[in-house]
Specification:
Radius of gyration: 12 Å
Low-confidence stretches: none
Distance between the termini: 5 Å
Structural class: mainly alpha
Mean pLDDT: 96
Strand content: 5-15%
Number of domains: 1
Shape: globular
Helix content: 55-70%
């Protein structure tokens, strides 16, 4: 298992996610983001707007995801 925070994954808080692979941790982050959206958390909304801008450029989004995947892979196992 490896741990990344919401902030490390483009979010706005220090909530930790633990997973054995990047796909799992990305899904946990997405679910958390949706929960924060549902309650209207302002800081997370700002972070989501930044991600939305990033997603408008497929090349930049692919590069960002690959960088996060590499960051995850480089982490020590918990």
């Amino acid at each position: 298992m490896k741990t990344m925070t919401c902030k490390q994954l483009g979010g706005a808080c220090d909530k930790e996610f633990r997973a054995s692979n990047f796909g799992e941790i990305a899904e946990m982050s997405r679910t958390h983001g949706m929960e924060m959206f549902d309650i209207g958390d302002e800081k997370h909304m700002e972070a989501m707007n930044g991600m939305k801008r990033l997603m408008s450029n497929p090349v930049a989004m692919k590069e960002w995801m690959e960088a996060k995947r590499k960051e995850f892979e480089a982490l020590p196992t918990d």
